[in-house]
């Protein structure tokens, strides 16, 4: 009887620790929403590297997270919804860009505030957007241009 009581207590402790980790992970990824935020929308031609839980930053400071990302079947753009913490008011002419932390870093959504006096309200759409730039695509263009120059005899030619 004492052995089964010990097992129940140990099992309960394991479940409590697991629940604590789940709550911590939900808060860290932005899954757990607090009442102190509002949603904004934006459509990107390319949202490569962006997923639910990705950071939304303003001047390098995290001010929100991506809460939804879907393909728009009419425009073939990636429609994103992101949650911005209350108190961060963005002008209506603000821009949203998919940016990278560096050569090997992850992507995030960067907000660039505009200069108009009116602010975006909850549910509004940021219309000025720029999708992600594919590093592999840029390298292929560079390599392809170099190969084309070598084949045409222009590589290393000086006049």
TrEMBL record:
Listed InterPro entries: ABC_MlaD (IPR030970), Mce/MlaD (IPR003399), MlaD_Phospholipid_Transporter (IPR052336)
Molecular functions (GO terms): phospholipid binding; phospholipid transporter activity
UniProt-listed Pfam families: MlaD (PF02470)
Domain of life: Bacteria
Start and end residues of each Mce/MlaD domain: 37-114
Name of the protein described by the UniProt record: Outer membrane lipid asymmetry maintenance protein MlaD
């Amino acid at each position: 009887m004492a052995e089964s009581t010990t097992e129940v207590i140990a099992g309960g402790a394991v479940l409590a620790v697991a629940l604590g980790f789940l709550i911590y992970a939900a808060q860290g990824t932005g899954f757990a929403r607090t009442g102190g935020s509002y949603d904004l929308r934006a459509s990107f031609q390319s949202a490569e590297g962006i997923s639910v839980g990705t950071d939304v930053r303003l001047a390098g400071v995290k001010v929100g997270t991506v809460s939804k990302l879907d393909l728009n079947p009419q425009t073939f753009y990636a429609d994103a919804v992101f949650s911005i913490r209350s108190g961060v008011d963005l002008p209506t002419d603000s821009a949203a860009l998919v940016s990278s932390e560096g050569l090997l870093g992850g992507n995030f959504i960067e907000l660039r505030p505009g200069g108009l006096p009116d602010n975006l309200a909850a549910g509004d759409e940021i219309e000025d957007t720029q999708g992600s730039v594919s590093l592999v695509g840029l390298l292929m263009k560079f390599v392809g241009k170099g190969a084309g120059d070598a084949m045409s005899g222009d590589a290393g030619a000086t006049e």
